[in-house]
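Sample intake sheet
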Amino acid sequence: MTDYRIALFIHVTAAVALFGGSTIMHVALHHARESRTVADARLWAGLIRRFAPVMPVLTVLVVLPAVYMVYDVWGWDAGWIRVAAGGVVLSMLAGPLVLAPRMQALGRTLATAADGPISPAIAQRLTDPVIWVTEQGLTGLTIAELALMTFKPGLTASLLTVVAVTGLGMLAAVPLRRRRAPTFSPAVAALSGD
């Protein structure tokens, strides 16, 4: 087994784990938004808080083998590699600089809120457009980067792919900003054994 194959295995495995963690965080954020009570929203926000510290570790486990593979085989001249690298840097900045502070503020709001129905102030935090646009945009960017790694297009096609798919992800956030009346209460269901 070559060093490249080991790096590729670590890279792909970490990417799958990163997608899994991201999926869990997306689902939790959606359920927090749809919660009827502060207790339910806290439950889902707690899941996000538990997964958030793992995401940077998984990102490093994706990036380090990728950098090795670029130096070992591909080189930095390929357009898809340069665009993908830029996307990774953007993701690594957007998470801690944009998403994390807003999610922490949401967590603090939920931690100090009185139990009971979701107040308008909490509903506003749960539908924060910056959280939703960033979260969905990063998902689009990640999908675009998977396309780049699969098809390995030139520079122009890589840029167009990233802009289009990231933009679609951001547009997908528009309907997610609205709250619907949920059909279940996870905290109550957990207590009742349903």
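Comment: The mean pLDDT is 91. Residues 3-180 form one domain.
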